[in-house]
Amino acid sequence: MRLRVAAIQMSSTPQRETNLREAGNLLEEAARSGAELAALPENFSFLRGEGEDVPDPEPPASFPHGPDGPVTKWLQERARALHLWILGGTVPERFSPGSGEERHYNTSLLLDPEGRVVARYRKIHLFDVCISGGPLFEESKTIAPGTDLVIAPTPLGPAGLTICYDLRFPELYRALAPSGARILFVPSAFTAHTGKDHWEPLLRARAIENQCYVVAPAQVGRHSAHRASHGHAMIVDPWGIVLAQASNRPAVVMADLDSDRLDEVRRALPALEHVRKDLFFRNN
Question: Is the pTM above the cut of 0.90?
Answer without folding.
Answer: yes
